[in-house]
Amino acid sequence: MEAKHVLVQMKDAGIEPDIDVYNNLLSGYALAAKMGDTYDLLKEMRRIGCGPNATLYTILIQSLCKHEKLEEGMRLFVEIRRNGCDVDAITYTTLISGFCK
């Protein structure tokens, strides 16, 4: 995938990606239903200490709900809380909307 290549080039140039870069990349993976790539990148983020934030989790939950993976979305929601990430009304609304479809 081209996005992975750009990320590698970015790192090779000595520019460390920040949470915004990862959020954009993961959002693209999630929207394209490339959940394997999504979870691999989440692992990398955690490994380098750039933990996901509530915005990213909400994007992932939205994608999971869109692809009718509600149980996985709920597991991710539980993970958010377990990791001490603050959730907001948007996160709750996203999950509720997923269950109402």
Highlighted features:
Serine Threonine Protein Phosphatase 5, Tetratricopeptide repeat, mainly alpha, PPR-containing_protein
Name the CATH superfamily classification. Answer: Tetratricopeptide repeat domain
Task: Tally the beta strands.
Answer: 0
- Radius of gyration from the CA trace? 14 Å
**Which residue ranges are poorly predicted, with pLDDT under 50 across at least 5 consecutive positions?**
none
Output the CATH topology. Serine Threonine Protein Phosphatase 5, Tetratricopeptide repeat
Q: Helical stretch count? A: 6
The largest sheet, given as strand count, sense and whether it forms a barrel, is: none
The overall pLDDT, averaged over residues, is: 86
Which bin fits the share of residues in helices? Answer: over 70%
* Helix-strand makeup class: mainly alpha
* CATH architecture tag: Alpha Horseshoe
Order of H and E elements: HHHHHH
Distance between the amino and carboxyl termini: 31 Å
Summarize the structure.
With 101 residues, the chain is mainly α. The protein has helices spanning 2-12, 19-31, 35-47, 54-66, 70-82, 89-100. The chain is globular.
Q: Helices and strands in order, then pairings?
A:
Blueprint: H1 2-12, H2 19-31, H3 35-47, H4 54-66, H5 70-82, H6 89-100
Helix pairs in contact: 2-3, 2-4, 4-5, 4-6, 5-6
